[in-house]
Amino acid sequence: MFPVFSLVSLLPEGGKVFVAGLHPEMLRAWLDTLANAPIEDVAEALQGQLKRTNAATNVRIRLKMLDIMAEDTARIAGTLEADLNQSHHPLSRDLQRKVVAGNELLKLHAKCYRGVVDKLSGRWLGRGSSRQLEHALHQAMDMERRRLLLAFRAYTPGSRSAWRNLHKLY
């Protein structure tokens, strides 16, 4: 019989990924449970999960989980853009809260992708790493672009940090 600590060391990332609930299949199952929840709740839950993705030290796993969550982030941003297209100004308080929640989600998601970019750009690029770096760069820039579009559709000034991050990534 193996001791428990030996079994944990056999798991990917030494078990940290599973303890934090960050296995890609577990993440997909968790996201499926949020399908019918209100946008603000989904955005808040995704923000919490994005903060936990930093527990994954393996860049490939972190990038895969970010990509899985990017689908829901894009869905939320698309829903908010559709709501803004059909709304009249001044915006209702409920829609303003949704826009703020969507902006915060996009901001955090872009920050996580920038973290992957920083980690990959600080080391020697091997085979496949350049594609990962390019993908993370594109995704980070897309999240910042969506932040600016959401702000402009809500007739608010675009975030200075979003512009700064776009220029830095470029």
Defining key terms:
single chain; 170 residues; mainly alpha; 8 helices; 75% helix; 0% strand; globular
Mean pLDDT, to the nearest integer, reads 79
Structural class: mainly alpha
Tally of alpha and pi helices: 8
Number of strands: 0
Distance between the termini: 54 Å
Work out the radius of gyration: 18 Å
Helix content: over 70%
SSE order, as H and E?
A: HHHHHHHH
Pick out the low-confidence regions: 1-20
Please provide a written account of the structure.
The chain has helices at 4-10, 16-19, 24-33, 39-52, 59-86, 93-121, 129-153, 160-169. It is built from eight helices and no strands. It is globular, with a radius of gyration of 18 Å. With 170 residues, the protein is an all-alpha fold. Helix content is 75%, strand content 0%.
Which helices and strands, and how do they pair?
Layout (H helix, E strand, L loop, with lengths): L3 H7 L5 H4 L4 H10 L5 H14 L6 H28 L6 H29 L7 H25 L6 H10 L1
Helix pairs in contact: 3-5, 4-5, 4-6, 5-6, 5-7, 6-7, 7-8
Provide a quick synopsis of the model.
The N terminus is likely disordered. The protein is mainly alpha-helical and 170 residues long.
